[in-house]
């Protein structure tokens, strides 16, 4: 690949400036295209991060843990499913009740 000094050897300064201007325009156009592609790819990555592969049971709810959409947890005997990324605990706007707790058999509850 030729160096810049080799490209400009024997040319007038006016031609050099015109050539540099064209090269700069091409580089700016390329950078602009790359930035747009990068923005699109970042958007696709974010979509893939939030895309559900189905429910993921995460065990008993733990304060301070980050839960993503479709993470399922147990809380006070019920199972809850996260609707979006959250650190808040169920019940609340970020959670959907999936299975309500039943009667406690140790307290004499009957199961028919």
Q: What name is given to the CATH topology of the largest domain?
A: Seminal Fluid Protein  PDC-109 (Domain B)
* Low-confidence residue ranges: none
Distance between the termini: 84 Å
Instruction: Write down the Rg.
Output: 30 Å
Overall shape = rod-shaped
Global mean pLDDT: 86
Strand content: 15-25%
Strand order of the largest sheet: 1-2-3-4
The figure for the number of domains is 2
Order of helices and strands: HHEEEE
CATH-level-2 architecture of the largest domain: Ribbon
CATH secondary-structure class of the largest domain: Mainly Beta
Classification by helices and strands: alpha+beta
Give me the oligomer status: single chain
Describe it for me?
The mean pLDDT is 86. The protein has 112 residues and is α+β, with helices and mostly antiparallel strands. The chain is 38% helix and 18% strand. A four-stranded mixed β-sheet has the order 1-2-3-4, with no helix packed on it. It has two helices and four strands. The termini are far apart. It has helices at residues 4-8, 13-50; strands spanning 56-60, 71-75, 78-82, 95-99. Strand 2 and strand 3 (78-82) form a beta hairpin. The protein folds into two domains: 12-50; 56-101, Ribbon (Seminal Fluid Protein  PDC-109 (Domain B)). The protein is rod-shaped and about 100 Å long. The longest helix has 38 residues, at 13-50.
